[in-house]
Amino acid sequence: MPEIFIDGHRYEFEGEHKVLQFIQDLGKEVPFFCYHPSMTAPANCRQCMVKAGQYMKSRETGEYEVDENGDRVIRWFPKLQTSCNLMAADGMVILTQETDEQVKRAQKDNLELILINHPLDCPICDQAGECPLQIQTYKYGPEGSRFEVKKVHKPKRVQLGPRVVLDAERCINCTRCTRFTQEISKTHQLTITSRGDKNYPTTAPGREFDDPYSLNTVDICPVGALTSADFRFKARVWEMNQTPSIDITNGKGTNIDLWTRDNLILRVTPRFNSEVNDHWMPDAGREAYKIFNENRISRPQQKLDGEKVLSSWNNAIATLGEQIEDTDNAKIVVIASPHASVEENYALSKYTNLLRLNAPVFTSHIEEGTGDGFLLSDDVAPNTNGCRLLGFKELDKSAISKEIQKAELVIILNDNLVDRSVVSADQLKDKFVAVFATNNSETAEIADLVIPITTAAEHAASYVNVDGRIQRTYRAKETKYTNRRIDLEMSEGRLDRYGTNFDNWVTEDNKIDCMPMWEIVNNLADAAGLDINFKDGREIMDEIASSVSNFSGVSFAAMDEQAGIQLSIKKETSTSK
Amino acid sequence: MSTVDWKNYTPVLLPDIKDLHKIDVYTKNGGYKALKSVLTDKKKWEGPKAVVEEVKKANIRGRGGAGFNAGLKWSFMPPADGGPRYLACNGDESEPGTFKDRKIFEYNPHVFIEGALIAAYAMEITTIYVYIRGEYKTYIDMMEKAISDAYDKGYIGKNILGSKFSVDFYVHSGAGAYICGEETSMLESLEGKRGYPRVKPPFPAQKGLWGRPTTINNIETLSHVTGVINNGAEWFSSIGAPTHPGPVLYGISGHVNNPGVYELPSGVPVLDLIEVAGGMRNGKKLKAVIPGGSSTPVLRADQLDGITMDSDSLRTVGSMLGTAGMVVMDEDTDMVDVLWRIAHFYHHESCGQCTPCREGTGWLEKILLKIKNGDGEVRDLDLLLDLTTQMEGRTICALADAAAWPVRFTINRFRDEFEARCIKKAHAVA
User: Fold this and answer.
1) What value does the mean pLDDT take over residues A43-65?
2) Cβ neighbours of residue A212 closer than 8 Å, sequence gap 6 or more
3) Rounded CA gap, B319 and B309, in Å?
4) Are residues A190 and A318 in the same domain?
5) How do residues A362-379 score in pLDDT, each as one tens digit?
């Protein structure tokens, strides 16, 4: 097998490898800015310099040549090489900054040059704390600067597009953003303008940077040159907790991170998953953080004499229990939801099955034209395939509307059927409508009973995307009934770990009075004298895996380990586009 | 060292013939004979490979500055596979002090066109581009005319002179960027992109224009091909310095009486060349010479004894032939000013792709401006020298080296003058 020698250690490799990526995959480090594993390597930042050479092999024997002292003969490349575009070769010798002074010096020199025209405004820069330039300067940079003349001035606070703001002075011209629009989103909206130390990225004159994937350039910008118009100046990175999650605004199931401070989700960034979304996510999904914070239903609500009033949990549970008892089973319709997780749907169906109600039905949520063949599908619900795999009957809009019109009691799990015109408010007028919902909506507005449930940011549950991949969320936000400090599964931020008591603050107002669906089901079952005791999403998934054959082998542990599990779905049911 | 007999040399690229740029005059004086011979004389030329071998034997060292054997470069082209193959002729000459190719465009465009066509035949090329800097508007027009004349006469186009060889020939004008003279940057520019040099490998012979095999040659280099085919490799390699043979277009500028382009054999003594250009202006004393365009290291007058204009001789005193665009400076020249002006040029022309050059060129210029204005300190000189090592050899193309060398060598060779400028300030404060 081909072998490569890095800092005196021997490694074997197969296939084609860029030396920089190979070193990173070993868990070692070489500083860099312009390289990105999903894009071409332009080798323009010149930071990832290494010393490279080749052990000479004898043509006849194929053995390494040795000199008179018995040492292998190395032919060094005449210049230092950028490791990002250097392909690993058999017998190659690499020295990084760890073992070679010349490399160390070259990297330091390069950082000094990068910094001379950089404004060094870290204290007011959004990138500070997650800035490759800042981090690498501390690690590999010079102690001070010898630059005593005037810096170059360039445009600042330029609104490149609706979502992205440019500070050209901070730009180090790595061209990651322009390459992103050329190679990944393919809109070709960004280019570098001007020459030399005056150049910076911009759009064509009169054009907006309205690429539907524009905010990815903010993520990959290695400095604070491109910032999010929405997020800038809102929070320092170290004040936030980063929690892995799944985008629930689209069926694609993009892997994301939720960034929380003071129990509010402040931003959404993509999380790498080579099987789903690589490093990217659509801008549309980033707006979704608002649905976790705003317009939430807190505390159960009940209609009394036509007026919506707040209710107690006990009262709400009892009311629903009584309604079910008082209504003829044939006149009850239970509507499951592609917008709710597998566990929530399962918990509801287990309860209704034990009561011998009609089996839950659901309708998928397709919005034609949303799909773009990349990270958006026409299916805008995160769990349509989950409902299918649980064996729920799928009805189209008119069929489900007919079912509803036949019923007297309508139980809806988190699906805004009125808002998306599946049924009209008029058609629901004479019926008792009970809704489990996360956010205010027209559907919740006309409901007789509204029971608030947790969002994907508040519970750990799984969703099956359009391609049949089951992935799960983590608890990122506290509810009135959970506590970050004692919840071992919630992420620990830098402030949680290192801050004093005065650094971290909690506003009780930001905690929503809601419960996970399965806890509500526990209470409903209790009231009906049924034996249901769900503990959390993890246990429910274990139960599903053992009782529903479509989910056999699925568990939270397995999903965590493999970044989601591919389930087998029928091809024709896939709505991936 | 044997002296080169340059006094009895008859020019071949720029002969004294009136209206040579007209195609009729050119053909009357033996023009397109070489092309005809290559295409039709099957006894003399057994196919394209024979032409490559002849040019390789002639040892035409690239006149664009790098001095690489043109025939050898041609032989790097992979075998033809039926797809398009390109010849890109580099007429971007933007190095300060260099203005030789424009003489070819102006006085003898067909010698270049013929050379390019022979090169295209030798490498089985399907399309030729000649990239001319945008500032040469007049010469771009003249080249357009010359090419269209050659099309009319059947020297370019389908089945040239009744052979199976077909080729298209296009003029492409630059937009005023020095960097587009760098060969891969020129390819990007030809493709309609921003002129950024490409990372090598892959080399243009493997993946050039639009990912296809491409050879890039200087205008003067290709012009010499015509002579080599007409008179043979021996004729060419017997002219001038043995290791760097052939006629050279010397572009002489600066403080001489008759600046201009002079065609002479390679290896002419530097001091003789100044005499060719009419000697020093106003009878002043020679102070320094930049031998081959502003990026080549400057030489002091006292270094020039016995030095001839070829790469080997110039290397002995630490300089290069480059493009043979020689800048002559007299005793009144302020070297600080000269260096600042050169640094200003490279700062203005750095494409900005690689960090060391983008940031380094600006820093060099700013420090030099400070010294020029009398605000410099001696430690600034050491910083400048340090910066040149930070830039050199750390970038994708050679422009960082081109920007760094003049600074390093001018300071090293005229350190007293620079220090004096810095120390004057120190005294003034005291």
Assistant:
1) 91
2) A185, A282, A283, A284, A372, A376
3) 10
4) no
5) 999 999 999 999 999 999
Q: Please give the residue of chain B at the shortest CA–CA distance from A82.
A: B394
Contact B409, B342 (CB under 8 A): no
Task: Enumerate the residues of chain B whose CB falls inside 8 A of the CB of residue A109.
Answer: 356, 390, 394
**Partner-chain residue, chosen from B347, B359, B366, that has the shortest CB–CB distance to A113:** B359
Q: Of A41, A106, A196, which has the smallest distance from its Cβ to B394's Cβ?
A: A106
Q: Do the domain assignments include residue A446?
A: yes
Which residue in chain A has the smallest CA separation from B393?
A: A79
**Cα angle at A362 between A360 and A363, to 5 degrees?**
165
Alpha-carbon distance values, B411 to B158, B297, B391, B420 (Å): 56, 10, 16, 12
Residue A143, domain CATH: 3.30.70.20
Q: In this predicted complex, what is the ipTM?
A: 0.91
Domain boundaries, chain B: 23-237, 247-330, 335-429
Residue A132 included in any domain: yes
What is the value of pTM for the model shown?
A: 0.92
Q: What are the Cα distances from residue B88, in Å, to A540, B184, B219?
A: 68, 10, 10
CA angle at B150 for the pair B145 and B152, rounded to the nearest 5°: 95
Confidence of residue B176 (pLDDT cuts 50, 70, 90): confident
The pair phi, psi for residue A121, each rounded to 5°, is -100, 40
Please identify, among A228, A253, A273, the residue that sits at the C-terminal boundary of a domain.
Answer: A228
Dmax (CA) for chain A in angstroms is 101
Mean pLDDT of chain B: 93
Mean pLDDT score, B354-367: 96
pLDDT tens for B219-251 read 999 999 999 999 999 999 999 999 999 999 999
Contact: A43, B177; criterion CB under 8 Å: no
Mutate to test the interface with B, among A47, A48, A109, A200 (most CBs of B within 10 A): A109
Nearest to B354 among A44, A79, A194 (CB): A44
